Amino acid sequence: MPKQVILAAHFPGVNNQTVWSDPASGSQIDFASFVHLAKTAERGRFDFFFLAEGLRLREQRGRIHDLDVVGRPDALTVLSGLAAVTEHLGLGATVNATFNEPYQLARQLATLDHLSGGRAAWNVVTSSDAFTGENFRRGGFLDYSQRYERAAEFVAVARKLWDSWDPDALVAETGRFVTGQPGAFRHRGAQFDVTGNFTVPRSPQRHPVIIQAGDSDAGRDFGAATADAIFNRHGTLEAGRAFYKDVKEKVRRHGRDPDSVKLLPGVTFVLGDSDADAQERAHHIRRQQVSPQTAILLLEQVWNRDLSAYDPEGPLPKEDPNVDATSIIQGRARMTRDPLETAAKWRALAEEKNLGIRDLIIEVTGRQSFIGTPAHVAEQMNLFVQTDACDGFIVVPHLTPTGLDGFVDTVVPLLQERGVLRSEYTTQTLREHLGL
User: Fold this and answer.
1) What b-and-e string marks burial along 330-354, b requiring 16 or more CB atoms within 10 Å of the CB?
2) In the beta sheet, which residues pair with residue 181?
3) What pLDDT was estimated at residue 419?
4) pLDDT tens readout for residues 49-68
5) Which of 51, 76, 216, 393 has the fewest CB atoms nearer than 10 Å to its CB?
6) 148 is in an annotated binding site
7) Which residue, 390, 111, 90, is CA-closest to 210?
8) H/E element holding 415?
């Protein structure tokens, strides 16, 4: 019996992977855009729809980053609207555990879970960024080393709140849901001290699905101990298998069933009538994703210097990255943990292939994960899942909101023919969809 391929649809984010210059590109904040992508994903029998989060507009060289001016709506509000226009599709929101409180967020997620009939998911992210913290009362007080400590306790408190209702003590029946008896909760820990009664009964799937996206050693361990699914960025078969083996072993060491945690890399795709046609389209998309201006901005994030005077088609800077200065970009993590090592690798690659700045940035940042005919893409995606490089994919199209249409029309039927993707929904809650 082959493994089933889990599929999630990522609404194209506020980044250079989205091709804003394409005439088919639509609004990032119009509700109709969210509806189109969600309904397309549900038509393709995807497991869930996934939204990222941005709590502050990024700045580079002291100016708001160009890509952020389109705006970043609140994910939970958008997903509450989508719950009314979808029937089966899971609804995943990225919400920060650093700048929220367990009681409030647990209520919001439990409410979404009820509104959707048990389809809610929470992607837990953390931050120690003082720049983002300026938007909040606590500021950037949280030390970097404490971010996962707080997140782990946050999730534990949320689960305690969700479990505080006694489902066996029947109080009332509302539609298909039976509510239980409210119970008191009490938690006293290093990060939180809360007590009271939770206001929302247990949801149809008991807990919203917990997703985690950190790739550091601490992030992997947090995900292995806490998450139901892990969003990672290991796009090659070899890297995926290594990550899969490492995390599943960590899950086992935490006393959990390895099958209880699903690993889902974020992937992109380009389809064509032939493999050569797809490669040509991919090349065109890469150049749209990395404009001359974008190439300089991305290079600055590694070099940590103002490089606006450099020619995007010219050679890399002779000077090394400035590792001692404050980050030139505020509101997001640096692109690399070791800028000097990255610069050395990029210089070697540029010399080997005779690449200018823009072509180098295209080479190192602008790649699609799966390129080819629909048959080739379906075959490769299935290979990743069946050989334990992942359990499925979070699919990131390059256009808003129609970028998933071709995938659903051509790749999905081929996965269904292989028997690795449902032809119809036979389960209702997201946990059931994922086999959790």
Assistant:
1) bbbebbeeebeebbeebbeebeeee
2) 166
3) 98
4) 999 888 777 788 878 877 77
5) 216
6) yes
7) 90
8) helix 405-417
**Do 233 and 168 reside in the same domain of the chain?**
yes
Q: From residue 2, how far is each of 109, 323, 386 by CA, in Å?
A: 33, 48, 7
236 and 308 part of one domain? no
Residue 216 marked in a binding site: yes
What mean pLDDT do residues 23-35 have? 92
What does the alpha-carbon distance between residue 290 and residue 21 come to, in Å, rounded to a whole number?
11
The confidence score (pLDDT) of residue 18 equals 85
The answer on pLDDT for 354 being more than 90 is yes
Chain-centre distance for alpha carbon 366: 18
Q: Is the confidence at residue 12, as pLDDT, over 90?
A: no
User: 137-142 contacts: CB < 8 A, separation 24 or more?
Assistant: 138/99, 142/98
User: Taking a C-beta distance cutoff of 8 angstroms, is the pair 393, 412 a contact?
Assistant: no
| Whether residues 343 and 397 fall in one domain | no
CA proximity to 125, closest of 157, 154, 145: 154
> Helices (DSSP H) in 10-87: which residue ranges?
31-43, 75-83
The three-state secondary structure class of 427 is: coil
Based on the domain organization, do 182 and 320 belong to the same domain?
A: no
- What's the CA gap between 413 and 424, in Å, rounded? 12
Is 157 inside any structural domain? yes
pLDDT of the residue at 253: 96
Over residues 242-247, mean pLDDT: 94
Cβ of 271: how many Cβ atoms within 10 Å?
21
The domain containing residue 314 runs over which residues? 291-365
What's 68's DSSP letter? G
**pLDDT tens track for 126-135:** 887 777 778 7
3-state secondary structure of 187: strand
Residue 36 C-beta-side C-alpha neighbours within 13 Å: 18
Q: Is 179 annotated as a binding residue?
A: no
Q: Which amino acid is at 21?
A: S
Tokens 């001016």 belong to residue: 69
Mean of pLDDT values over 308-312: 95
**pLDDT for position 165:** 85
Q: Based on the fold, state whether residues 260 and 167 are members of the same structural domain.
A: yes
Asked which of 324, 348, 365 is the last residue of a domain, the reply is 365
In whole angstroms, give the CA distance from residue 79 to residue 121. 10
Residue pair 434/229 in contact (Cβ under 8 Å)? The answer is yes
> Beta strand 329-330 with 59-60: parallel, antiparallel or unpaired?
antiparallel
381 and 253 belong to one structural domain: yes
CB within 8 Å of 371: residues ≥ 6 apart: 269, 270, 272, 275, 278, 279, 282, 377
- Distance of alpha carbon 165 from alpha carbon 184, whole angstroms: 8
For residue 436, the model assigns a pLDDT of: 93
Domain end position, chosen among 365, 380, 412: 365
Same domain, 187 and 226: yes
